[in-house]
Amino acid sequence: MALLEQRGLRPAGEQQLGQASYYGPEFTGRKMANGRRFDPASISVAHRTLPFGTQVLVTHLGNGRSAMATVEDRGPFIRGRIIDLSPRLAERLGMKTEGVAPVEVRPVEVAEAPN
């Protein structure tokens, strides 16, 4: 929440708690659900239901690190996981060696779903 306050932002949706994982190298260049190609250096995430373009704050509950991200893909489709992160975000959150980590996902700016 401190990162939101630093940026003058307020939560725009309900928090979710669960496990995060991150995209493996085999996803580089593949088309995401929004039609764009996946870039491991991006701040892209996959979420099952939040509209594309939604800005979220992801916080690693084990170490307190947070990062802003943009929903650009759908997934993850593994039970208990609530978000897939780009490798850049996984590195920023300090979870690359773990592979999977407990996180809080908080929508900050919810994009409007296209008609």
Automatic annotation (TrEMBL):
Q: Which domain of life is it from?
A: Bacteria
Cite the residue spans of the region called Disordered: 1-21
EC no. given is 4.2.2.-
GO MF annotation terms? lytic endotransglycosylase activity
**GO annotation terms (biological process):** cell wall organization; peptidoglycan metabolic process
Using the record's annotation, list all stretches that form the RlpA-like protein double-psi beta-barrel domain.
18-105
Q: Which UniProt keywords apply?
A: Cell wall biogenesis/degradation, Lyase
What the record says about family reads:
Belongs to the RlpA family.
What biological function has been recorded for the protein in this entry?
Lytic transglycosylase with a strong preference for naked glycan strands that lack stem peptides.
Q: Tell me the protein's name.
A: Endolytic peptidoglycan transglycosylase RlpA
Q: Taxonomy-wise, where does this protein's organism fall, top ranks first? A: Bacteria, Pseudomonadati, Pseudomonadota, Alphaproteobacteria, Acetobacterales
